[in-house]
Design goal:
The protein is mainly α. It is built from 17 helices and no strands.
Length: about 350
């Protein structure tokens, strides 16, 4: 009897151990089930990231994730942030016949500022969106989401970018400093908007239009809201157009990830709504030019730019991510056509 009693607890211990092993196994299975991607999809995302590094692959390996945080391998975002600044700088320079040196100094500083501040915005976005980026295939390989950069490391890097941005602002007239500071809440709030509203594009469009205000004091021109206001609103509409179409790339993943966007709320009506916004954009753009007494170059290149944009909207397949991405990146060329007309008028004013 004693032997039986001694063996019995051992059997009970073994019987208790087996369920514990099953619990550990089942927890692992649950974690795997929560992963929205197959191992093949994750490997495909990793290979796609490596293939798209471009010139970044020549950097020291430790630097690459930080360069990716700034989206240096994807300059289209920086370009779309910079182009409206060039519009404002050029129209302001035209309005006061600013010397070419003043124009070149402002465009140089804004080029550095756009690179730094767009990068800072991306870092803030990635820090807040780590758990969302893990659920969207296009973003799962971002440095913070993939664990290649920690949140603490990203915060330190963000501080360095903000310091450089502050240096750029202090190199411009003081009015640019406080106008630039007013944009920071909008930059910070964008990631929150896509969690709680279907219109994060509104917030990012405000951020991408801010240069339309900064460009005027940058060259010593007064901030004339009869010009800067319509120019700002025109770029706001343009940004709403290209970012709404851009959002259609991720709409299937966004539904499951809980990310909100105009693509999800507008759905099949996106083209109709975007075309309506297009009309408002064109009217606002030409109103700004009229108020600034711009010349033939502005209207000629502007008309071609809108013709080009209209055709691109028409040709884009909203259910094809590659088509949406092409539309988004092609907007840089459209924005440069708008700028070319302003630049022609400004240079003719100086030299003819």
């Amino acid at each position: 009897m004693i032997g039986i009693r001694l063996v019995s607890p051992l059997r009970n211990i073994r019987s208790l151990a087996n369920p514990l092993r099953h619990v550990r196994f089942n927890t692992t299975v649950v974690k795997q089930l929560k992963d929205p991607f197959t191992p093949e999809q994750r490997e495909s995302a990793r290979l796609a990231r490596l293939a798209n590094l471009g010139w970044l692959r020549h950097l020291p390996e430790k630097w690459i994730p930080y360069a990716e945080l700034l989206r240096l391998e994807k300059p289209v975002g920086t370009s779309l942030l910079l182009v409206p600044s060039f519009w404002a700088i050029t129209m302001a320079s035209y309005s006061i016949a600013a010397p070419l040196t003043t124009f070149l100094y402002a465009t140089s500083l804004f080029s550095v500022g756009a690179l730094v501040m767009r990068g800072a915005g991306c870092i803030i976005n990635d820090m807040l969106d780590k758990d969302l980026d893990n659920k969207v295939l296009r973003t799962v390989e971002r440095p913070i989401a993939s664990g290649r950069v920690s949140r603490n490391q990203a915060f330190t890097f963000l501080a360095s970018q903000m310091f450089i941005g502050l240096g750029v602002l202090l190199s411009l007239p003081f009015e640019c400093f406080y106008l630039g500071a007013l944009s920071l809440p909008f930059i910070s709030l964008y990631p929150l908007f896509k969690r709680f509203t279907y219109y994060p594009q509104v917030m990012i469009s405000i951020c991408f239009s801010w240069g339309c205000l900064l460009g005027f004091p940058a060259v010593g021109a007064p901030l004339d809201l009869s010009i800067a206001g319509p120019l700002f609103f025109s770029n706001f509409c343009w940004s709403m157009i290209y970012d709404s179409i851009y959002a259609h790339q991720d709409k299937e993943f966004d539904k499951t990830a809980g990310v909100k966007s105009t693509a999800l709320v507008w759905k099949d009506n996106t083209k109709k709504i975007v075309n309506s916004i297009f009309v408002v954009q064109a009217l606002s753009f030409f109103t700004a030019g009229f108020m600034a007494n711009m010349g033939l170059g502005f209207y000629s290149f502007g008309a071609y730019g809108f013709y080009r944009l209209f055709n691109r909207i028409k040709q884009t397949d909203l259910d094809n991510p590659a088509s949406c991405w092409f539309f988004f990146t092609d907007n840089v060329k459209t924005g440069l056509y708008f700028w070319a007309g302003m630049l022609v008028d400004y240079l003719m004013l100086l030299f003819i």
